[in-house]
Amino acid sequence: MDLFVARVVDGFNNGVIYGFLALALVCVYRGTGHLNLAQGEMAMFSAFTAYAFYAAGLPVVLAILGACVVGFIAGGVVERVLIRPLGHHADYSILLVTIGLFLMLNAGAGVIWGGDPLPFPAPVPSTPDDYISFLGTRLRYQQILVFVVLVVVMVGLFLLFRFTRLGLAMRATASNPDSARLMGMRVNQINGLGWMMAAGVGALIGALVAPSTTLTTGMMFNFLIYAAAAATLGGFDSPVGAVLAGIVLGVVENLVGSYVDWVGSDLKQAVALVILLAVLMVRPTGLFGTKKVERV
Amino acid sequence: MSLLEVRDMHAGYGGGDVLHGVDLTVHAGEVVVVLGANGAGKTTLMRAVSGMIPRRGSVELDGTSIVRESADGIVRRGVAQVPQGRGTVVDLTVEENLRAGAHVRRGKGLAEDLDRWFTTYPRLAERRRQKAGLLSGGEQQMLAISRAMMSRPRLLLCDEPSLGLSPLLTEELFASLTSINQELGMAILVVEQNAMIALGIASRGYLLEVGDLGPSRPADEIAADDSIRAAYLGA
User: Fold this and answer.
1) Distance from CA of B66 to the nearest CA of A (A)
2) Substitution target from A30, A171, A182, A237 for chain B, most B beta carbons within 10 A
3) pLDDT block averages, 10 residues each, chain A of length 296
4) A291 located within any domain
5) Residue A33's pLDDT is what?
């Protein structure tokens, strides 16, 4: 029983990270209607940025916040310089540019910080004794922190999209940029803001995850696959759905990996993708996504 | 002074000009119609006035030049457009579409305006929480007009509102444009292929022929003109 709980909790903690990164994907999607494949690498680069601040002598919390600010601004720059010139309807070009950005950031981080893992401190106490017991298993402070920050960000995004004038403008812009302009929305700025928010959230994820994964250029790669799966599963336009789907994926993946011998840890990733495929066959819009409707 | 004053406006889509020096005037409180066949440049004219495509020449709103203004800035100055194809934001609900239409407004009166348009078009009220993409063509056209009106414009541009609607719905729609004009004193510029019904609500009309706009004439005179009847009215 204890082992079962421990496996659920482990999966849950992974799922929290998947859901968190999925949130960043949803930010870009909600603000622009596009998928940013470089989201994970942007988060990784931001984690290194936080490390650089920390190494320069800033306290951990300030280093993380600093990286968020830098990420926020950098997200805007990326949108302005790489994405906006392509125009709103260049879906495939934008997808390709995000792949290019992925490679650039991945290689760039390697050039600047090298290929060896770097230690990154947690913002909360994280000696082996810093945990609370929960049904016979251990919840580490660091894991609790990630979960709490995730919930705060998720609720914040949900409220923004659902109840504010800006959130409505972001959704309108993602859905129909031409009409959004005719309603007086500053479509370019709104797109930029979507990227900025996503990059800021990404920086937070990178810096919060780095203490458990150690800081490497490959730290986000796996997570991005799961996050894309979670966002698809949850419905790309739903922050709450993305987070829930991420957590479900994490738990199911870990349980199947632990209890089904032939899956083991090697095929764990395939489990997530099989779930994704199965859900999409039944509900193409994801579990929580709203159906795209169009009548002509 | 006229509300909208367009002089020698050229506009097109990169490849070349579609409009070759257009002059057009709309006075406050007036309904003006521009008639033209397919491909004459009606939509180009609308998109040029609202700043959605590059244009040269002079475009003035209430005496202030808006030719260098961005599309969103022109909406803020009080020009709202009902685009061709209705421009429905299909992923938002009906009510969210209307709220989005009020984006440029600040302050009070939003709830009152929502009420007003839900009263004007009760079918929208019945569907206010549905995704707008689920509405029928006629309902989407009502939504497009209400959405444009939610910005409290001074000038309403309507791009072929009759497109794809049954004759009965078209009549209803033009009747509601008339009442928007009369009750709110709203100036309306409408481009149409359906000449007869559009002339019925307008005081003046222009004929747009492959990028050239002639002088305006009284709407009833155009409707009575035999050569125009033959060309546009199918009679």
Assistant:
1) 14
2) A182
3) 84 90 86 86 94 94 95 94 85 91 94 89 82 82 90 92 93 92 94 92 91 87 87 82 91 88 80 83 73 52
4) no
5) 79
From chain B, the residues in CB contact with A174 under 8 A are 91
Number of domains in chain A: 1
- Residue A77 sits in a domain whose CATH number is 1.10.3470
Chain B nearest CA to A164, separation (Å) = 10
- Per DSSP, the three-state class of B128 is coil
- How confident is the model at residue A171, as a pLDDT? 92
Which of chain B's residues have a Cβ under 8 Å away from the Cβ of A166?
none
Q: Between chains, do A183 and B100 touch, taking CB under 8 Å as contact?
A: yes
Two structure tokens written together for A210: 């780095």
From chain B, pick out residues whose CB is under 8 angstroms from the CB of A185.
72, 100, 103
pLDDT for position A235:
76
A109 within domain boundaries: yes
Q: What is the pLDDT of residue A296?
A: 44
pLDDT at B199 over 50: yes
Within B16-121, where are the H helices? Answer: 42-49, 71-76, 94-101, 110-120
Instruction: Select the CATH number that applies to the domain covering B4-88+137-144+152-233 from these four: 1.10.540.10, 3.40.50.40, 3.40.50.920, 3.40.50.300.
Output: 3.40.50.300
Q: The tokens of B82 are what?
A: 């009902």
Tell me the nearest-neighbour CA distance from B109 into chain A, angstroms.
15
- Asked if residue A193 lies in contact with residue A83, where contact means CB atoms within 8 angstroms, the answer is no
Whether B230 shows a pLDDT value over 90: the answer reads no
Q: How far apart are CA A246 and CA A227, in angstroms?
A: 7
Q: Do B100 and A169 touch (CB under 8 A)?
A: yes
Please indicate whether, in this complex, the C-beta atoms of A182 and B91 are within 8 angstroms of each other.
Answer: no
Interface of B with A (CB under 8 A): 50, 52, 71-73, 75-76, 80-81, 83, 87-92, 96, 99-101, 103-104, 131, 133-137, 140, 147-148, 151
Give CA separation, B74 vs B51, B138, B184, B188, in Å. 7, 27, 20, 16
In a domain, A133, yes or no: yes
Amino acid at B9: M
Q: Note whether residue A278 is domain-resident.
A: yes
Q: How far apart are CA B135 and CA B124, in angstroms?
A: 9
Percent of chain B with pLDDT over 70: 97
Judge whether A164 is closer than 8 Å to chain B, CB to CB. Answer: no
